[in-house]
């Protein structure tokens, strides 16, 4: 076939990867004496892979993920309090189909956000809609919408995604109106869409976070009804990296002379 005709057909069908690889892969297939069906399957697989990569890249950007760390980059050995099998099971995303939630609890730096982003990436790869936001940014956005009489439309931004990830719950206390707006969000998503929340506060402290024990109980009642709670207890990854960096930079050095004491 005339290469120009093939290029035209690929352009019409938007097969950009097939057009790019058809010639080189044909030469390789001929040299290896591969059957035509294997050559065609190879080209189509390359097209599918390229489209998936473009899809994931665009959806990661739309989801506002703060970084891109897949689950395989998580150091489970450093956090023995985490059940790796449980996290791997969560990565199958069955809980999203059930509109259930995940709550990661623990002190700063233990990997809550990392696990959240990893599961969000897994969901994006499975072509689920995802949105990531800190609770401070989300509440500030919803409060502006409330004051401008456009709250329902703005709330839809956070209820529409199949998975909503809310980071840093509890790092700062919320005013009464803000806590009420968060309750409205949780109620709107209840049994309709999944959430992942990270918090450095135990549930017994959420009354202080939301400024009202009754309201906090109502929020937790909806979040925990269908949920998995993962408590992480361990050292901060950031502190570990700081210690390593200090060692590499020679900041932890023995005395210049004499005996080194332990």
UniProtKB/TrEMBL annotation:
Domain named AAA+ ATPase is located at: 98-230
Q: Which SMART domains match?
A: AAA
What Gene3D superfamilies does the record tag this protein with?
P-loop containing nucleotide triphosphate hydrolases (3.40.50.300)
| GO MF term set | ATP binding
- According to the record, the residues making up region (Disordered) are 243-262
Pfam families xrefs = IstB_IS21
Q: Name one GO biological process term.
A: DNA replication
SUPFAM superfamilies, sorted: P-loop containing nucleoside triphosphate hydrolases
Q: Entry's InterPro entries?
A: AAA+_ATPase, DNAC/IstB-like, IstB, IstB_ATP-bd, P-loop_NTPase
Entry keywords, A to Z: ATP-binding, Nucleotide-binding
Q: Does the keyword 4Fe-4S apply?
A: no
Q: Which family does it belong to?
A: Belongs to the IS21/IS1162 putative ATP-binding protein family.
Name by which UniProt lists this protein: ATP-binding protein
- Which species? Sulfobacillus harzensis
């Amino acid at each position: 076939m005339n290469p120009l005709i093939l290029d035209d057909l690929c352009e019409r069908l938007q097969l950009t990867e097939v057009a790019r690889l058809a010639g080189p892969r044909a030469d390789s297939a001929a040299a290896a004496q591969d059957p035509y069906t294997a050559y065609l399957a190879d080209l189509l697989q390359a097209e599918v892979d390229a489209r998936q990569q473009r899809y994931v890249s665009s959806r990661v950007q739309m989801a506002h993920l703060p970084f891109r760390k897949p689950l395989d980059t998580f150091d489970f050995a450093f956090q023995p309090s985490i059940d790796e099998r449980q996290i791997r099971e969560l990565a199958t995303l069955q809980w999203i189909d059930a509109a259930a939630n995940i709550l990661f609890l623990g002190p700063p730096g233990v990997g809550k956000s990392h696990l959240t982003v990893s599961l969000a990436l897994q969901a994006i790869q499975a072509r689920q809609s995802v949105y990531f936001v800190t609770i401070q940014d989300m509440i500030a956005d919803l409060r502006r919408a409330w004051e401008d009489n456009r709250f329902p439309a703005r709330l839809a931004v956070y209820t529409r995604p199949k998975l909503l990830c809310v980071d840093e719950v509890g790092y700062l206390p919320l005013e009464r109106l803000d806590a009420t707006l968060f309750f409205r969000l949780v109620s709107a998503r209840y049994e309709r869409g999944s959430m992942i929340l990270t918090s450095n506060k135990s549930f017994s402290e959420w009354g202080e976070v939301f400024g009202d024990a009754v309201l906090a109980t109502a929020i937790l009642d909806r979040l925990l009804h269908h949920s998995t709670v993962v408590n992480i207890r361990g050292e901060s990854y950031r502190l570990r990296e700081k210690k390593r960096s200090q060692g590499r930079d020679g900041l932890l050095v023995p005395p210049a002379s004499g005996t080194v004491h332990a």
